[in-house]
Every structure is written in structure tokens, then in C-alpha cells.
Write a structure and sequence with these properties.
By secondary structure, the chain is of the alpha/beta class. The chain contains 12 helices and 21 strands. The strands form 4 sheets. Strands 8-11-12-13-14-15-16-17 form an 8-stranded parallel beta sheet. A 7-stranded mixed beta sheet has the order 3-2-7-18-19-20-21. Strands 5-4-1-6 form a 4-stranded mixed beta sheet, with no helix packed on it. The structure holds N-(aminocarbonyl)-beta-alanine (URP) and zinc ion (2 copies).
Amino acid sequence: MNFETIIKNGTIVTATDTFAAEIGITGETIAAIGRGLPVDGARIIDAAGCMVMPGGIDVHTHLDMPFGGTFSADDFESGHIAAAYGGTTAHVDFSIQFKGQSLHTAIETWHKKAAGKAVIDYGFHCIVTDLSGNQLNEIPELVKQGVTSIKLFLAYPGVFMVDDATIFRTMQQAAKCGALIMVHAENGPAIDILVKQAVAAGQLSPKFHALTRPPELEGEATARALTLGEIAGTAVYIVHVTCQQAKDAVRAARQRGARAHGETCIQYLYLDITSFDAPGFEGAKYVFTPPLRPKWHQAELWDALVKDDLQVVSTDHCPFNFKGQKDLGKDDFTKIPNGGPAIEDRLTLLYTGGVHGGRFSANRFVDLVSTKPAKIFGMYPRKGTLAPGSDADIVIWDPNEERTISARTHHMRVDYSMFEGIRTKGAAKTVLCRGKTLIENSKFVGRAGMGKFIARAPYSNI
Ligand code: URP
Ligand code: ZN
Ligand code: ZN
């Protein structure tokens, strides 16, 4: 057998195994894993001293997304380049159905955003905001096209929020055709009242974004969404879990035997509500939803990752520049575009805190950033593992490389870092997506247009 590329001298790390072997790549896929693979003119990548792992998969991103009168600052090219630098080779972005639109229009709009720009592979979830037309009947069609997950919001009244009846009907339809329901779980109407009261009292600084969205209202909405899902007979995935209350609701549903999953995002593992004590308007850098919590919630989230109460770590990457975007809310926190930049930093931060922090193994790290996302979202085993026949999405990971995160050196198209000054240990050195090199010795060598749409399979119980 002839290989185009052989990765030698590394330690293969999957979600289940750690072993020394070579990987032979032909075309876009892994052709063989073994020892003493015949070189026969193949390009050799030397992974000595490094882990060789499946590419990271970020299942929660918002590239080029309209929000709060502006657009998230990374598009499918800049966001993908930053992702690749961080070891992420695939992501699933949210296409939005605006009120009155068909779901088809939403997906087509997002296909156009990615066309010609994509560097890594990408899929779409569909945010459903309105069922007043034929949208319910479109869901099976979306599933056939490989858009197999629907997101519903219990928050943002008047923008994205849907009522419980809409949620329940969508869940029943999803159950019939194997779509996975994702939920942004916060009690929007109650939060709206707290926000109006804060504004009326002149409490307008960024910190009130957090203080008007208490964790109890995330816990309540999470439990409600999971209960509705159980009755509708659908699998439910709770996005961006930030707190003990919501984590406990996911855990309880899983213990009841429900098909329930939860993710947290890397910022909730590293940052807490004291970020809002930054001087002046700096706190706006940390305005995203749900908000940062008191520090003790972090230990609950790390523990949930250890115990599999939460199964995925993603980013909710939704960057807005501090100057020119976040400052739309300079005098009123309700006008600050919600979201933060993280697509580049997920793997290095999770490896630093999780593996070097002694909380879990490198295998569990791979599981959380790649394998579970692939399994839950219908991409496995094409993606999310290293096996013959799988896409050659491969990261050569130096477990000991130390860096300091900074907006001065990151590749996200945004003027600040949420993680400025944090020291990390573990970094992507070389990154391949379907056999093509995107990052070589920490330098980008890919090009726009290389990334492909991933048609995903329906949810299957994992
Ligand atoms: O603040 C956030 N998270 N912005 C993106 C939209 C969402 O709620 O996921
Ligand atoms: Zn959300
Ligand atoms: Zn989001």
C-alpha cells in the first residue's frame, strides 16, 4: 500500500486508547495505522515527543452572525484560520431562521456565508424562531440534507425566544425524524423583568448583565427543557451550561435515563463574575449569555466533566470588537452585543486545566473536544477519532509547549482576548484537515475554500 503522508514517532491518543504507532494517509482519509508503514516516497511528518489526536470539533460557534445591530467579527475565513491554529478542524455553526422565513432560507443564507471562505470543515444547526408557516414540515427535509440539529431559545424574548408550545411541537417533530434538539436554557420572561427593573434603577454598567440573569433561572429553564424533551420523546442537548443548578438538572435527567446531554464552554471554566470588576467599561468584554457566575460554579463544571455529567466543551465563539461593537452599549448594558471570542483557545485551555491540572486524562480531553461532539452530532466515525477510513483530521499536539494567550498574538479578528495573560501548556504544532496541512510547525499554510460542508447523520443514542 502506498501512502501520501505518514505521521511517525508520535503517540496516538484517542478517547479510549494511547499507543505508539504510525498513521498512513491516502487522499482525504486515514488508510492505515500500524508500525513500519512503507515509506515509498511518502511525505513524512515527524511527531516525536507529541501526541497525535483527532482534530478538535467545536459544535457551538457563531461566525458572521447578525446580533444587536452588528455582526460577529469573525467570518468563515478568519474564524476558521483561528480555529485551525488552535487545533480545531471542524465546527457546527448556527444558521438563524428569522421570523417569517423558511428553514430552507436560513440554511441557504449560511451556506453562502461559508462558500469560498471555509478553511476547516463545517456543519449547520438551525435556530428555529417561528412555526407560523410550513416550517415543521421542513425539519425532515433538513435532516435529509445533513442538518440534524435544531436550536430553540428559552431566552431573548422578542428576538429568538419561542414559547413552550412551539418548543414542544418542534421536539415532537424532531423525535419523528431523528433531529437533536439543542436548547439555550434561561427563563427569558423573568430575566426581562429583572433587566427592566435594573434599567429603571439606573443600574446600567456591564455587571448588571450578569446580576439580572441569576443561575436559578438557568437551572429552572434547563429542567423544563429536559422534561419537555422526555415527554416529547426527543434527545435534548443543553448548550452553554454555566452553573451548578443547570448541571444538576442535566445530571438528574441522565440519571432518569433520558437522552440528555450538556456542554459547557471554555470561558465558564476559567472566568468568573469578578471579571466585571475590571475598570471602566472593560467588563463589556465579558458580556455573553448566560453570564459569568461566582467562582465556586467552576469547580462544579470541572467535576461534571470528570463524571460525564457534561459531555462536551465548546466555545460559543461569538466575537465582537471592544472598540466599535461592544461600545454600542457604553451607557446601557442591554445594548452590548452578547458574545465572546474563544474558538482558538479551547483546546489549549482545556488541556492546561484538565490534563496538566490533574483532573482528567488526555483520553478524556480528546473525548470532550472531539469524540463526544462527533458522536452526539452525527459525525462519528468519519470524524472524532483516528481509525482507518476516518477523515484524516489530525492534530500533532505538543503537550509541553508553554504559551501566554494574548490579543497581540491570537488569530481571531477581534481586538481583545477574554484570556489575556493566561499561561497555557499544550499546543497544536501541525494540523491536517482531510489530509491537507493547515498548520505546519505553528504556521498557517492552508487557504480559503479548502473546507467542506459536513452532512451529518441523525441523532443516534450514544
Ligand atoms: O452571548 C452569547 N452567547 N451570544 C451568542 C448567542 C447565544 O446565546 O448563544
Ligand atoms: Zn445561546
Ligand atoms: Zn451560542
